[in-house]
Amino acid sequence: MKTDFSTLGGLLGTLVVIGLAVSLGNGNAAFFDPASFLLVLGGTLTAIIARRSTRDFVDHLRALRAIAHRDAQELSELSAQLKKWASVARRDGTLALEHELSSVRRPFLRDALMLLVDGANEESLKNTLRMRVEMLSARHERIISTWEDWLIVAPAMGMIGTLIGLMQMLGTLQDTAALGQAMALALLTTLYGALLANVIAGPIASQLRMKHDDELRWCEAVIVGISKIARGESPRRIADAVVTPFPTARIHKPDEAA
User: Fold this and answer.
1) Considering 13, 46, 91, 146, which has the largest number of Cβ atoms within 10 A of its Cβ?
2) Domain boundaries, the chain
């Protein structure tokens, strides 16, 4: 995997811009309050735990590793790999591809190749692989929707913190000097909630959604290529089919015409 500098740079750049805006503003204003930050962050985490299963919560945190990396294997590389496998399968049979299993790192591609080596026919290959794609997609959807929960929960916790602060502020109405400070602390929770939702969770959810869509397209290309190898089509046609951007709903039409 390669490091995705654009994602990391975007997140860091947003935080730097906000930091500069804070530092160039009123130097007397305090923008960090541990109690307010703990209320928003801790309250958001516990509320999401209550909304999701433990597995979904852990998985959505583990998905942060995917944000910092982008997959190095493009469709062009997959096309070349499948073309090579098709040539071997045509010449020596699919069983001759068994030695390739140890060099395949991506689990979905390795499972597809294993099915091919085991002699699965085209229909069986497609059904099995698409079932695995559905399971993968369902898991990804749960992870993405958990991050999207932050967009709802974090601002809500910020508002709750603001209401708590305003109620506490009512006790300082006689002290005008403390009134302004209490109001500032009350508003900080709204600020923290907005930052967590729109600066952190929002971009993460969007990036995971894009990576999810890219992976589904890559998996569909694997299914098309491996199925054509099982059918015994020419390596050149297989390579072309993998990189041709057919819509998913129409991806079987070239096969039907053949």
Assistant:
1) 146
2) 43-57+76-161+190-249
